[in-house]
Specification:
This protein is α/β, with parallel strands linked by helices. It binds 2-acetamido-2-deoxy-beta-D-glucopyranose. It is found in: Membrane.
Length: about 300
């Protein structure tokens, strides 16, 4: 009798699992992407999610560089913003150019802050016009999404997630001020976790550690400068006191496009999942130039 009962119980469990899996395969996903290369990395993931049977809606400003309609993968909802393509293009170009300049440490820090402040005004404006677009927010509420996929580089998506009261999945390469570590309370001792732009490794001399510490402090300054407007915006929109760290700490999963090939090993929290391999999803054989360059790097 007992084995029969067991097999019946197993059968019931399997049926239940199948039912749940079937249910899970038809989720409704809201995507609030970040413009530029960030979007290019996210798009193949959406394609796969669509193939897995999920329904996807992407929300983006009507002025953008790469986010175009793609009916067989997602439906695109756009909202108007008060700037032009030319203005945004020019700013992005300046940002890209500056990132590759070889400048003295302090000059680089001040230039980076100035450029980030300029670029940030576009994104802040875009976020304001998303949140206060009543037709759009009405649509978002009525659509009853299961989750939001977003790049926390642009924290606007998380404000929407809070507003709709649904879980969010973060997909990111990093956040300039390293909010990902602050928001998750992930340990990150400056004595052996090199800060962005320092070009140090996890083995630093004493002088380098001191500089790394200084860079760490400048990061927090940069953060409040560039990102604090989002805390005001979110507090006003959600009608409660919100900090950016508090906002981002509510993300359910952090899918991080990095691994120990592209960055030095460091502590991660259990909900931070390195998925660096995704950068190689579209792979092609190396050209001869790349091969020589790669061998050059290896030998130095
Ligand atoms: C984070 O989520 C909790 C629980 O849902 C909520 O009470 C809190 O207000 C959220 N934090 C922010 C900053 O929205």
């Amino acid at each position: 009798m007992a084995p029969v009962f067991h097999s019946k119980a197993y059968f019931a469990v399997i049926l239940l699992l199948l039912a749940v899996l079937d249910f899970a395969s038809g989720g409704k996903l809201l995507v609030i992407p970040m413009e530029g290369s960030h979007w290019l990395s996210m798009k193949p993931v959406l394609k796969q999610l669509r193939q897995n049977g999920h329904e996807i809606v992407v929300v983006a400003p009507d002025v953008n560089m790469h986010i175009k309609p793609s009916e067989n993968i997602y439906s695109l909802k756009t909202y108007p913003v008060p700037f032009t393509n030319e203005e945004m293009d020019e700013d992005f170009r300046a940002f890209g150019k500056q990132a590759f300049e070889d400048l003295p440490f302090l000059v680089m820090v001040t230039k980076t802050i100035e450029q980030m402040r300029k670029t940030a005004t576009f994104f802040l404006s875009s976020c304001t016009h998303l949140l206060y677009n009543q037709k759009l927010t009405m649509y978002l509420i009525q659509s009853k999404f299961d989750a939001v996929l977003l790049d926390p580089f642009w924290p606007c998506g998380q404000i929407v997630a809070e507003y709709l009261g649904i879980p969010s999945v973060f997909f990111l390469r990093g956040i300039p001020c390293s909010f990902e570590f602050e928001a998750t309370q992930c340990p990150r001792p400056p004595s052996y976790v090199p800060r962005a732009f320092t070009r140090y490794s996890d083995h630093m001399t004493f002088a380098q550690r001191v500089k790394n510490m200084l860079f760490h402090l400048s990061e927090s300054f940069l953060c409040s400068y560039v990102y604090s407007p989002y805390a005001y915006l979110a507090s006003e929109f959600l009608q409660r006191d919100v900090t950016l760290t508090g906002l981002l700490s509510n993300g359910s999963v952090w899918l991080m496009r990095e691994d120990s090939i592209s960055s030095y090993p460091k502590p991660l929290m259990p909900n931070m999942i390195p998925i660096g391999g995704i950068n190689c999803a579209a792979k092609e054989p190396l050209s001869q130039v790349c091969k020589s360059f790669y061998l050059f790097i290896l030998s130095h």
